[in-house]
Design a protein that fits this description.
The complex is a heterodimer of chains A (322) and B (363). Chain A has 322 residues and is mostly helical. Chain A contains 14 helices and no strands. In chain A, α1 crosses α12 and α11 (238-248) crosses α12. Chain A is globular, with a radius of gyration of 20 Å. Chain A starts with a helix and ends in a 21-residue tail after the last helix. Chain B contains 15 helices and no strands. Chain B has helices spanning 6-31, 36-49, 51-76, 84-101, 107-136, 140-163, 204-221, 223-233, 235-240, 245-262, 264-272, 283-293, 298-321, 328-342, 344-362. Chain B is globular, with a radius of gyration of 21 Å. The chains are: A mainly alpha (322), B mainly alpha (363). The interface between A and B is large, with 48 and 46 residues.
Chain lengths: 322, 363
């Protein structure tokens, strides 16, 4: 594999890892607060459809983005209502919302556009367009680093950079603010937070809504950044890969970046069969690459490479003592 | 909170949940400018009025009974098996390997062999998540989700690279020998008087009904069932009583996987006659809805499977004859899971208010 090919693959990696990263960080907030969320997929899908539909109608990607976030927030609200207010089963709520999203996105898109469940194709101002970072062209001539900067780091859509920036922001919020301390505490031992006079319900709702908003970004990126429009089931299991990445990262922000980049790299490699065959001399079947993130996660879950221990109070609805 | 009478908890809670799911679905239909009444009419006519429609409804219901029972038995052990889908896919592989291995002379020989293949492969796919849960404490929900995706990738590989006959384009196995074809309800003497046209519902329906009875007997009439249920109710108490958590987790998940695998005799052997990609078509996930709706009791699973069979056949008819997309059934499925599985406390609270008012009035 030559340097130019490597750069191409890394460029694709970054593009494909972005929705995973956004969804992974989304899940991090909710799960760190003690609400398991296997409904990331559904929220992303809902956001992808809302964003693409509204962007197509208004012609503005910004209005579309807002609609995408709203769509995901709506689902997050239902998830919070079921799992916090009514103390229902968080996992079942997530599964249920995934199914509702899978169906209702097609119903709405079909009703609005009548194109077999797709939204109208987006172009121009209705999409996020690539941003060329400063000096990208001037530096392109510098050996090694120049092409890396110009081809891999520069030339992505805004949401890619937002996703990357959210990693340190999340780290800071989680480990350097009072809110973050409380958020982590409510996921480990909600009773202690309650005793300190802080509302468990409000904290968990805040976390679940942040999850919704970030899933909104992830979904909007899928339909208005990565692709130009919504198609049925377009998230294709990315919500679950993000969940896998979250476990792989053991619920920590910087590791989440690493895990999603790794899984994004696998996805990028799966698109370039020819390169794998040329580099290592044998053809790895595409299904094996597709399954790799899941297999790695099972290995981590099995405790073969370090142990993934979820937040202690995760999955348990909090009942105040009376 | 007001404690509900048992009959209300068993019958009224799922019924109200179902009504809520139906109301929300109707609102969705109104929102996209369709008529809910018209939709219901098309669904009933397509699924319940003619024996032909019933032939499809029962075909779907057969698969859902197997997957519903699969989720049920795991649930009683306190395990939420989301992996029935992957286990059903692998069960299909088991059926295909058995059916293609020999030139079967008659279905009476092929069916038991295929059932063993289906159950073994389904159970094997559940075994690893079960072991990881029992021994390493890895959360079964997450591992079974992962195994669904691994199963999907594995099946694509097996179908494209190994089972696909030379010169065939689509990823599917060769056709099974004629002797491995199961009789449909149209071909069974006596029933053929009702089902005068060829229908997909086949002899596996009776296997599924038998499975309902067997699972009921295991759960409530054997020592194993007692162990499973007590472990599911309280792990600590069960362990104190000398029940092995590892054994219960493993056995319950193996039975669960075997049941999910067994659905493949219906769709792979009974209907398509060869192994197709994504053969189970989400039936494993519908098992979750069926088990929740059926309150994790085999009788409830049977009734809920019929309901979802109706929903599936009716939904397909909607896709054919109206402008309502077939995906409506996924929405209803999700809503049923939401209301019966996650918002059940809300329904109980609502009913509690009603019962309390009635009690106070009587007093």
């Amino acid at each position: 594999m030559d340097y130019a090919t490597l750069l191409q693959i890394l460029d694709t990696t970054l593009r494909l890892a972005t929705p995973l990263l956004l969804a992974c960080l989304a899940g991090l907030y909710s799960e760190r607060a003690g609400v398991f969320d296997i409904g990331l997929e559904g929220k992303m899908l809902m956001a992808a459809m809302s964003a693409a539909a509204v962007a197509a109608i208004t012609g503005s990607v910004w209005v579309g983005l807002a609609a995408g976030i709203l769509g995901a927030l709506l689902f997050a609200l239902v998830h919070g209502l079921a799992s916090i207010t009514f103390r229902g089963n968080q996992l079942i709520a997530g599964v249920a919302l995934n199914f509702v999203a899978s169906g209702i996105t097609v119903l709405i898109a079909q009703d609005l556009f009548g194109q077999g469940g797709r939204t109208a194709p987006l172009s121009g101002g209705a999409r996020f367009n690539a941003i060329t970072l400063p000096f990208a062209e001037a530096l392109a001539g510098v050996p090694v680093i120049g092409p890396l900067y110009a081809e891999v780091i520069s030339g992505h859509t805004l949401l890619v950079y937002v996703a990357l920036a959210l990693v340190p922001v999340t780290w800071w919020l989680l480990y350097r603010t009072r809110f973050g301390l409380r958020l982590r505490a409510v996921g480990e031992n909600p009773a202690s937070v309650d005793t300190a006079g802080v509302s468990v319900v409000r904290l968990r709702f805040t976390a679940v809504l942040i999850t919704g908003a970030l899933c909104g970004l992830a979904g909007a990126y899928m339909s208005t950044g990565l692709q130009a429009g919504f198609g049925r089931e377009m998230t294709a299991g990315r919500g679950y890969i993000a969940l896998a990445a979250l476990i792989f990262a053991k619920w920590r922000p910087w590791q989440a970046l690493g895990a999603t980049m790794l899984f994004g790299f696998f996805q990028a490699l799966a698109l370039r069969q020819d390169v794998i065959t040329k580099t290592i001399g044998i053809a790895i079947p595409v299904p094996a690459l597709d399954a790799l993130p899941y297999i790695l996660t099972v290995i981590v879950l099995a405790g073969l490479v370090g142990k993934a221990i979820p937040p202690r109070a995760g999955g348990e609805p909090y009942v105040k003592e009376r | 909170m007001e404690k509900l009478p048992k009959w209300a908890d068993v019958a009224l809670v799922p019924l109200i949940s179902l009504i809520l799911a139906a109301v929300v679905s109707a609102l969705v239909l109104l929102a996209i400018g369709e008529s809910p009444a018209q939709a219901l009419k098309v669904m009933v006519e397509g699924a319940l009025v003619s024996p032909y429609g019933w032939g499809y409804t029962l075909y779907y219901a057969t698969s859902f009974m197997f997957t519903g029972l699969s989720v049920t038995i795991a649930y009683h052990a306190g395990l939420f098996n989301i992996g029935a889908e992957g286990q059903a896919q692998l069960g299909g592989l088991g059926v295909a390997l058995v059916c293609l291995a020999l030139p079967w002379p008659h279905w009476t020989l092929a069916l038991p062999a295929a059932m063993i293949g289906a159950a073994l492969f389904g159970a094997a796919w559940a075994a690893i998540p079960a072991y990881l849960q029992a021994k390493r404490g890895s959360h079964i929900v997450i591992t079974t989700i992962m195994f669904n995706y691994i199963a999907a990738a594995l099946m694509i590989y097996v179908l494209v690279e190994l089972l696909r006959p030379q010169g065939q384009m689509d990823p599917a196995s060769a056709r099974f020998p004629a002797g491995a074809a199961l009789p449909t309800l149209h071909e069974i003497p006596g029933l053929s008087l009702i089902f005068t046209k060829q229908v997909p519902a086949n002899i596996s329906l009776f296997v599924a009904l038998a499975a309902c009875v067997v699972i009921w007997a295991i759960l409530w009439r054997t020592r194993l069932g007692y162990e499973i249920r007590s472990f599911g109710k309280s792990e600590a108490a069960a362990r104190y009583a000398g029940i092995s958590g590892v054994k219960v987790t493993m056995v319950a998940m193996l039975i669960s996987g075997a049941l999910a695998g067994l659905m493949s005799i219906n769709n792979v052997m009974g209907e398509s006659g060869r192994l197709l990609q994504n053969a189970s078509e989400g039936a494993g996930f519908i098992g979750i809805a069926v088990a929740l709706m059926g309150r994790n009791h085999p009788l409830g699973v049977f009734l809920a499977a019929l309901l979802f069979g109706f929903l599936y056949q009716g939904g397909a008819e909607l896709g054919l004859w109206t402008s309502i997309p077939i995906e409506l059934r996924t929405v209803v499925q999700g809503l049923v899971i939401l209301f019966t599985g996650a918002l059940d406390q809300m329904v109980r609270m609502m009913l509690g208010v009603v019962f309390r008012a009635r009690r106070l009035k009587a007093a």
